[in-house]
Amino acid sequence: MADPNAGVVFILRRTVPWIRGAIALALVLAGAFGLFGVDGLMGKAPGTIDGLPTALACWLLACGSAGIAFQLLKYLRRVRLFIAQEHTAQLEAALESQRRVWKWGVMTLVLALAMILVSVVVSGL
To answer: Which residue in 70, 94, 118, 119 has a CA-CA distance of 20 to 30 Å to 61?
Structure first.
């Protein structure tokens, strides 16, 4: 009798390197956006808010990218646990972690786009 989880295990085993790459990319982006946020405030006249919305958007993206990396790490751990033990409960936990990654990413994107829109409005005034 064939193992019903064999195909899922095979597919998830092949995604582990991609998850690691996504974690590394998210951490690099978090650092880059953090530096862009600091750079956005450098050289601005004291007392002006020209660079503040842009800097806040960059820091929001930095925190969001770090959060995505953390959620991906949790997903990676749950995938490894499912690959090792092949229990359906671990697969459900891994899929729940994957849902959180997407939820975190969409929330970050929407908030960052709102901050960029505020930045455009403020810089136009």
So the answer is: 94
Nearest Cα to Cα of residue 15 among 79, 73, 68: 79
Burial class of residue 101, CB neighbours in 10 A (0-12, 13-18, 19+): buried
pTM of this structure: 0.80
Q: Is residue 115 part of a domain?
A: yes
Question: How many folded domains does the chain comprise?
Answer: 1
Q: DSSP code of 45?
A: P
**28 domain-assigned:** yes
DSSP alpha helix (H) spans, the chain: 6-41, 52-85, 88-124
Residue 114 lies in a domain: yes
Residue 1 placed within a domain: no
Report yes or no: 75 and 95 within 8 Å, Cβ to Cβ.
no
Reduced to 3 states, what is the DSSP secondary structure of residue 51?
coil
